[in-house]
Amino acid sequence: MELVLSLGIGIMTGSGVWLILRPRTYQVIIGLSLLSYAVNLFIFAVGGVKSNAAPLLEEGVDISTMTDPVPHALVLTAIVIGFATTALFLVVLLAARGLTGTDHVDGREQPK
Amino acid sequence: MSGWQQHLIIAPIVIPLVAGALLLFFDERERVLKAMISVVSCLALAAVAISLFRLANNGSDGFEGVYLLGNWPAPFGIVLVVDRLSALMLVLASILAIPTLVFALARWHTAGAHFHSLFQFLLMGLNGAFLTGDLFNLFVFFEVMLAASYGLLMHGSGSMRVKAGMHYIAVNLAAALCFLIGVSAIYGSAGTLNMADLAVRIGEIEGERRMLLEAGAGILGIVFLIKAGMWPLNFWLPGAYSAATAPVAGIFAIMSKVGIYVILRLSLLVFGQGDSAGLGLNVLLYGGMATIAFGTIGVLASQALGRLASYSVLVSSGTLLAVLGLNNGTVTSGALFYMVSSTLTIAAFFLLIELVERGQDAGASVLAVTMEAYGDADEEDEEVEVGVTMPGTIAVLGICFAACGILLSGLPPLSGFVAKFAMLSGMIGTGANSEAPIAASAWWIVALLILSGLAALISMTRAGIRTFWASMEGTVPRVLVMEMAPVMLLIALTLALTIKAGPAMGYMEETIRNLQQPAAYIDAVINARRAGVAEPSGPDGGGGL
C-alpha cells in the first residue's frame, strides 16, 4: 500500500508540475488541482499509513494500532481552502480570457 | 493580564471578521454606511493594537499573553500569542490601514464591488498571521489574507490587473501547496504543529526524522521567501504591486513583511539553538544580498513610478533578509526599525504616485488602466466628493515626493536615515563587537545598502525632475484633501519615528532580546493556564493569562 500511495503522489506531483509550467491557463489550473490532490495524499501519508484503524482513544487499546487523527483534520482544511482558491482562480482565468481574448498565461500569444 | 483584557488578544481577528461579514449585508449603493463601518472597525483595531502594544511594552519580560482558543491546553489546541514582536506588527498593520482606507474612501472604493469587506478580511488574515502560535493556523490565516488580496489586487478591474492577478494567484496557489508540504513534513517528523512545542521537541529529534524536519522547514522557508520577495522568487511582485490600485498597493506594503515576520519568529524560536541552529541563514544572507542588487537595478531601470515603488519593496525586503541572515542581535533590532520605517514610506509612496500621475496625460500603460478605471468612477462620484481641490497642489505633492525620496534613500533627517544608521553601526561601527573582525559578508551588505540608497536617490531625483519641473504639458492634478491627508499622515509618522528614535530603538532591542531567549515564550505557551480550571502544577504553572 505504501508503494501505491507513494507512486500515486509522485505521478500526480510530476504531472502537476509539468502542467503548471505550460503556457495555457487551463493546463495551469489542472496542474494546480493535481498538485493539490498529491499534497492532500501526502498529508495523509505523514500520519502513517494504516488501514482499518480508528482514530479514537480507548482504554486498554494499544496506541500503535490507532491512526493519527490530526492529519485528517489538516487534510479537511486543506481540501476546503484548496477548493475555494482554485474556484477563485477559475473565475480570474475566465475573466482574463474574456479581457484578453486568449487563454495564454501572459494574455497574448507568443510571437511567431 | 486578567478578565476582559485577556480577550483583547483575539479582538484583532474578531473585529475585522465581524465588520467584514456585516458589510456584506449592505448594498454597494449605501456607500456612506459601508465606509462608516469600515472606518469604525479600523479605528477599533488600532485602539486594540495600541493597547496590546502598551501591555506588551510594560510587561516585565516583554511577555503579555497567551489565548487558548476553546480553552484547550496549549500543544493540543490552537493558541494566540502576543509578545513584543507580534504587538509591533499589529500596530504597524492597523496604523497603516487607516490612511490607506481613508485614501480609498475618496474615490477608489467605488471602483468595484466589496472593497470594504475584502479590506477587512485582509486585515483579519494579517492580524491572525501575526498572532497565531501554531503552524497550521498560520497557513489558514495566510490563505485568508491571500484570498482577500486576490480580490483587492483586481479591484478596479481592467485587463492589466486581471493579468497581473492571474500570475499572482498562480504563484501563491503553488506556494500554498508548498506550505502544506512543509507543514505536514514538520508534523510527520516532530509530531506537533505548535511553534513553542516544536521548539521544545526539536532537541529530541534525531537522524532521518531530523532530516525530514529540516527539509520541511526548508520548504516552508521557500513559501515565506516567495511572500517576502527574495530573488529569484520575486518576479511576480513588481507586476502585481504596480498593477494594483493605489490604496491596495499601500496596504500590500505590509504583506511582504508577513513573510519576514514569520522567518524572524521561527528562525529565532525553533532554529535559534540546538543542532539545527542557524538553519538556512546563508540562504537568507546571500539571497537577501541578491535581492538588494536585483531591486537596485530595477529601481534604476524603472520608467513608471509604480514599478519604481515595487522595486523599492524588493530593496526593503532584501535588506531585511540579508540582515536577518547575519544573525547579529544589534543589527537585527536596527532592521526591525527599518521595517517599520520602510513599510510606512512605501505605503506613502504608493498613495502619492497615484496623485502625481493623475496630472500626466501621456504615460505608461499603468496609467492607461488607471484612467480607464477612473472613467467609470468619476461620473457617479461627483456628488460624494467632500473635500475641495487644494491650491498649491503641486507644491504639496512635491514636498511629499521629496520626503519619500529622502526616506527611501536613507538620507537625514527622516527615519530612513536612522534605520540605516542603526544597521550600519551594528555591523561596522561602535555597535559592532570590537574584538571580532568584521565579516566579509557584513562589508558586502554595507556596500549594497549604501549603493541601493544611492540608486533610490538617483531615480527619485530623476522622476521628481521629470514630474514636477519638466512637465509643462501636464495639467495640475485635482487632488482632494482627503487624499492628501493620508500621505501626509504617513510621512508625519516617519517624522514621529525619527523624533522618538531613542525609545523606538529601545523597544526594538528589547524585542530582539526576548526573541533570542525563547525560553520565556515556550514556558508561557506550554504552561498557559486554562480559564476556570484549577491547575495542579503549582507555582511554576503561571502562564501569560
Structural account:
The complex is a heterodimer of chains A (112) and B (545). With 112 residues, chain A is mainly alpha-helical. Chain A has a single domain, classed as Orthogonal Bundle (Helix Hairpins), CATH 1.10.287. Chain A has 3 helices and no strands. In chain A, helix 1 packs antiparallel against helix 2. With 545 residues, chain B is mainly α. Chain B has one domain (3-377, 391-541). Helix content of chain B is 71%, strand content 2%. Chain B has a two-stranded antiparallel sheet with strand order 1-2. Chain B is globular and about 70 Å long. The chains are: A mainly alpha (112), B mainly alpha (545).
Give me the CATH architecture of chain A, please: Orthogonal Bundle
Assembly context of the chains: heterodimer
Provide the domain count of chain B: 1
Provide the number of structural domains of chain A: 1
How big is the Rg of chain B?
23 Å
Care to count the β-strands of chain A? 0
Average pLDDT level of chain B: 83
Q: Rg of chain A to the nearest angstrom?
A: 19 Å
Which outline of chain B best applies? globular
Salient structural properties:
A: Helix Hairpins, 65% helix, elongated, B: 545 residues, mainly alpha, two-stranded antiparallel sheet, 20 helices, 2 strands, disordered C terminus, cell membrane (chain A)
Task: Present the secondary structure layout.
The complex is a heterodimer of chains A (112) and B (545).
Chain A: H1 2-20, H2 25-46, H3 69-100
Helix pairs in contact in A: 1-2, 2-3
Chain B: H1 11-23, H2 31-58, E1 63-68, E2 79-83, H3 84-106, H4 115-131, H5 135-153, H6 159-190, H7 195-201, H8 207-228, H9 236-243, H10 246-269, H11 281-301, H12 305-326, H13 329-357, H14 365-381, H15 393-409, H16 415-427, H17 440-469, H18 481-499, H19 501-516, H20 519-526
Antiparallel strand pairs in B: 1-2
Helix pairs in contact in B: 1-2, 1-4, 2-3, 3-4, 3-10, 3-13, 3-18, 4-5, 5-6, 6-8, 6-9, 7-20, 8-10, 9-12, 10-12, 10-13, 11-12, 11-17, 12-13, 12-17, 13-15, 13-16, 13-18, 13-19, 15-17, 15-18
